[in-house]
């Protein structure tokens, strides 16, 4: 086997039809992301994250600065191309360059991103970079077993459910069972085609409503 180690992610900016995925920057994104991470965010959005929403802008800037400097997790911002506003973020994490595997995590969406073309395309762009630029072998998604929206999102995006790790962690005063999902490199061409078919402008009517659901493809 002619095998070499992978590289760490260095994605700066990639764009699609509806979204832009850009390396998180305090200078560029702080004001927009405070609407996502700050006191106006929905409390239920933080149930399955180790963080809590921020009620102090200076403390938020301190945390965002740490996120910007971090290499693992490697934080990315999701920008709505229509408005040019940052409306969410996620991160490459648990980056195993020796085995060419990594996870997508720390997913924080504003209400504007939920169940949107922008969110789906951003996830697609993140996957494409991992498989086609870094040539990684395995891409993971993990979530709290109780987090059904995240579980369903992983399946919708084409991840394969691999099972539940019982008593995997303790956070926010309770135990967590963790569901594991993955896409591997040999599966990516079919997953890519499926996502591109759904994201095609021809799959949406004049009001932006989908014609065929991603789960149907």
Strand content: 25-35%
CATH class: Alpha Beta
Distance between the termini: 35 Å
What's the CATH architecture?
A: 3-Layer(aba) Sandwich
Order of helices and strands: EEHHEEEHEHEEH
CATH homologous superfamily placement = Gcn5-related N-acetyltransferase (GNAT)
What is the overall silhouette? globular
Number of domains: 1
| Sheet having the most strands | 8 strands, mixed
In helices, the fraction of residues equals 25-40%
**Average predicted local confidence, pLDDT:** 95
Show unreliable segments.
Answer: none
Q: Helical element count? A: 5
- The CATH topology is what? Aminopeptidase
User: Radius of gyration over alpha carbons?
Assistant: 17 Å
Structural class, from secondary structure content?
A: alpha+beta
Q: Total number of β-strand segments?
A: 8
Biggest sheet: strand arrangement: 1-2-3-4-5-6-8-7
Protein name: N-acetyltransferase domain-containing protein
GO molecular function: protein N-terminal-serine acetyltransferase activity; protein-N-terminal-alanine acetyltransferase activity
Pfam families: Acetyltransf_3
